[in-house]
């Protein structure tokens, strides 16, 4: 009797191994894939399956403006990335307060997002006596989307070609008990308060002419009824390109990609000067961190899209992006700066 035993090599003769070899599959090869899949499932579980429904983006101004454009171009890209609808809703009124309050009182689930800007978040709380939200207690900053620096503009027929020309003329007028006229979109706006900071830096006095919005301020400046205007770049960019206004200096700490040949106020002799408007997403306080992270990641990805960058820059803005933590640091810095400017300007709305 043949007593020879067939010796099996471990791991070679079990049916699954033979199938795996035929399919070209190895456990070592699929482990990384499994790890990624499990990590994705864990992330989804932490966020409660977010987003599982349409997200509403509140824009606290009317349709058709710079904020509206910003919200729509970024939201379209985020909806593609997160596979859900982002619905932009315009809620204007009270210099953005009505829209901000709407989001502050919304459920903290990530389905109601505010597109806020400098005015609503770090000026209104110090300008208005009855603001019912606290920027740092009512909201969580998600991401700073872009910056829109201010720009000093004069009529194209103006003799002022540089910031030094304006300062020299203002000092001469002040010595005679007179002032140059400065137009802004309104009292307490970023443009107004930026001009306050500039007048302090330059040691000059200008007569502030506040308008009810930028349109009429631009019209009077183009016509020469005002000597100069402090405006956000997106607001006056079209008139600058059309040759109706001359850009003299921008208020940011670096030159604008939209106006690369225009020096900054800092370059013109006032080192450290930096003021302007930013736009960013906020969610109600107590929104889960996992949801904030998902929105932040999607928004950052959207801001890397060439068509989004092109749209923002074409409107005179500068793409920023970054973390929620970095945005919070900007909020604290700007709150200190603008609260002081509001106090020194004497502007107050009751």
Explain this structure to me?
It is built from 13 helices and 10 strands. By secondary structure, the protein is α/β, with parallel strands linked by helices. It has 2 domains: 55-148 and 276-345, D-Maltodextrin-Binding Protein, domain 2 (3-Layer(aba) Sandwich); 149-268, Periplasmic binding protein-like II (D-Maltodextrin-Binding Protein, domain 2). Strands 1, 2, 3, 4, 5, 6, 7, 8, 9 and 10 form a 10-stranded mixed sheet that branches. Helix 5 (118-127) packs across helix 13 and helix 8 packs across helix 13. It starts with 14 loop residues before the first helix and ends in a 5-residue tail after the last helix. Mean pLDDT is 87; it is low at 1-46.
What is the C-level CATH assignment of the largest domain? Alpha Beta
According to DSSP, the number of beta strands is 10
Tell me the CATH architecture of the largest domain.
3-Layer(aba) Sandwich
The share of residues in helices is: 40-55%
Taking pLDDT < 50 over at least 5 consecutive residues as the criterion, the unreliable ranges are: 1-46
Instruction: Encode the helix/strand succession as letters.
Output: HHEHEHEHHEHEHEHEHEEHHEH
Cα-to-Cα separation, first versus last residue: 109 Å
Main pleated sheet: 10 strands, mixed
| CATH superfamily descriptor of the largest domain | Bordetella uptake gene, domain 1
**What percent strand?**
15-25%
| Cα-atom radius of gyration | 27 Å
Shape: globular
Question: In DSSP terms, counting alpha (H) and pi (I) runs of 4 or more, how many helices?
Answer: 13
Structural class designation? alpha/beta
- The CATH topology of the largest domain corresponds to D-Maltodextrin-Binding Protein, domain 2
Pfam family, one: TctC
Family: Belongs to the UPF0065 (bug) family.
Protein name: LacI family transcriptional regulator
InterPro entries: BUG (IPR005064), Bug_dom1 (IPR042100)
């Amino acid at each position: 009797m043949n007593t020879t035993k067939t010796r099996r090599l471990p791991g070679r003769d079990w049916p699954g191994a033979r199938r795996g070899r035929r399919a070209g599959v190895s456990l070592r090869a699929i482990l990384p894939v499994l790890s990624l899949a499990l990590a994705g499932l864990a992330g989804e579980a932490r966020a409660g399956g977010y987003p599982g429904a349409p997200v509403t983006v509140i824009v606290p101004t009317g349709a058709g403006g710079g904020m509206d454009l910003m919200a729509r171009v970024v939201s379209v890209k985020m909806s593609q990335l997160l596979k859900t609808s982002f619905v932009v809703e315009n809620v204007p009124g009270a210099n953005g307060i009505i829209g901000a309050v709407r989001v502050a009182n919304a459920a903290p689930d990530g389905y109601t997002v505010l597109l806020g800007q400098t005015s609503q978040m770090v000026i209104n709380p110090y300008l208005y006596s009855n603001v019912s939200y606290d920027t740092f207690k009512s909201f969580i900053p998600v991401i700073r989307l872009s910056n829109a620096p201010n720009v000093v503009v004069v009529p194209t027929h103006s003799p002022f070609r540089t910031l030094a020309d304006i300062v020299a003329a203002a000092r001469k007028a002040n010595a005679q008990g007179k002032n140059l006229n400065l137009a802004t979109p309104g009292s307490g706006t970023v443009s107004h308060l930026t001009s306050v900071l500039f007048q302090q830096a330059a040691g000059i006095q200008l007569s502030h002419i506040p308008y009810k919005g930028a349109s009429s301020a631009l019209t009077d400046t183009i016509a020469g009824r005002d000597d100069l205007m402090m405006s956000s770049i997106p607001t006056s960019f079209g008139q600058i390109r059309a040759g109706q206004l001359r850009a003299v200096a921008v208020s940011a700490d670096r030159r604008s990609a939209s106006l690369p040949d225009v020096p900054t106020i800092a370059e013109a002799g006032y080192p450290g000067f930096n003021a302007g408007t930013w736009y960013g997403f906020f969610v109600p306080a107590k929104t889960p961190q996992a949801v904030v992270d998902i929105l932040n990641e999607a928004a950052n990805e959207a801001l890397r899209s060439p068509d989004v960058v092109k749209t923002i820059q074409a409107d005179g803005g500068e793409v920023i992006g970054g973390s929620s933590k970095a945005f919070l640091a900007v909020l604290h810095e700007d709150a200190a700066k603008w609260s002081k400017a509001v106090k020194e300007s004497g502007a107050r709305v009751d």
